[in-house]
Amino acid sequence: MDKVVIDGRMGEGGGQILRSSLTLAMLYGKEIEINHIRGKRPKPGLMRQHLTCVKAAQTICNAKVDGAELGSSRLTFKPGPIKGGNYKFDVGSAGSTTLVFQTILLPLLQAEGVSTVEFGGGTHNPFAPPLTEIERSFLPLLRDMGARIEIEAERWGFMPAGGGKWRIRIQPAALRPIERVKRGELNHSRLTAYCYNIPGKVGEREVQAYLSLREHPVHESRQRKPEAGCAGNLLAVDLQFDDHRICISELGQVRRRAELVSKLLSQKVKSYLDSKAVLDEHLTDQMMLPMLIAGGGRFSIAEWSLHAETNAEVIELFTSRKIECDGAIMWME
């Protein structure tokens, strides 16, 4: 088995290097050694959510692992065959379950049998893609590529307590390349304020403040109270175009005024609409590994960030295949 040695300080030096390396190790059957894990973060090493990613990857392929401990800066991971089945992974905090999901998703799509996975922990926190965006932005693109994935969110988990619970059902499928360079005209825009156990009229203030900014047409606005493991707030905009849809969101936080949450989200949405791109900064990162597994693809992007550049470097390190970018289009032949 080939062994790939990765320096966790490369590029942006964060947790994505670990997660992408675990995914690629399982998909290509390569042993990995990662040194200086999260080496450019204020608190380097494996934190709880990163350790859960390692444990989840280990479980689905019966990997031999050394260094899987909180705070560890070095890890070796030798994968075995990927096994579909019924799994349950709990971060045990408000740490992101969506990052655990992304680590094991593509390997389970290549497994022999159907998999059902239950996740416990954080679903909406500032340092990871929120479950709402995974469900409404990322998964529709994967389904267009041929993935057969069903999701059920029982309970959201906000910081600091977490307590979220959700499930995914994954049927093995081969991904096919897709091209998304034009999104078409904007047909519908929906603004939603999600509040759970938040005092005052936070959701109402967020909606009114957002509408008063008049940065783009809003065809529908509403407030919703999701089931959640602790108090929390999310403001989200769903954009439906002729050929694409995306959800962009902003988390409410303690001592952050509702009006500021609305302003920050409005700036995100305006930036995306002005870009004319299909993929925003976060989706650009998220679609790289599916594009690799599909054997190609072509997408217009809003930004080629250091995060994206680092992810592309990790992919090339494992496969010698290069994701190309000219600033406006990302592709792989």
UniProtKB/TrEMBL annotation:
EC top class named in words: ligase
Family matches, as SUPFAM superfamilies: EPT/RTPC-like, RNA 3'-terminal phosphate cyclase, RPTC, insert domain
One Pfam family it belongs to: RTC
Gene3D superfamilies found in the cross-reference section: RNA 3'-terminal phosphate cyclase domain, RNA 3'-terminal phosphate cyclase, insert domain
Main location: cytoplasm
Domain RNA 3'-terminal phosphate cyclase residue range list: 10-324
Keyword Ligase annotated: yes
Enzyme Commission code(s) on record: 6.5.1.4
Catalytic activity: a 3'-end 3'-phospho-ribonucleotide-RNA + ATP = a 3'-end 2',3'-cyclophospho-ribonucleotide-RNA + AMP + diphosphate
GO biological process, one term: RNA processing
Binding site for ATP: 102, 282-286
Domain of life of the organism encoding this protein: Bacteria
Keywords noted in UniProt: ATP-binding, Cytoplasm, Ligase, Nucleotide-binding
Compartmental location: Cytoplasm
Cited function: Catalyzes the conversion of 3'-phosphate to a 2',3'-cyclic phosphodiester at the end of RNA. The mechanism of action of the enzyme occurs in 3 steps: (A) adenylation of the enzyme by ATP; (B) transfer of adenylate to an RNA-N3'P to produce RNA-N3'PP5'A; (C) and attack of the adjacent 2'-hydroxyl on the 3'-phosphorus in the diester linkage to produce the cyclic end product. The biological role of this enzyme is unknown but it is likely to function in some aspects of cellular RNA processing.
Family per similarity comment: Belongs to the RNA 3'-terminal cyclase family. Type 1 subfamily.
Name of the protein: RNA 3'-terminal phosphate cyclase
Natural source organism: Hahella chejuensis (strain KCTC 2396)
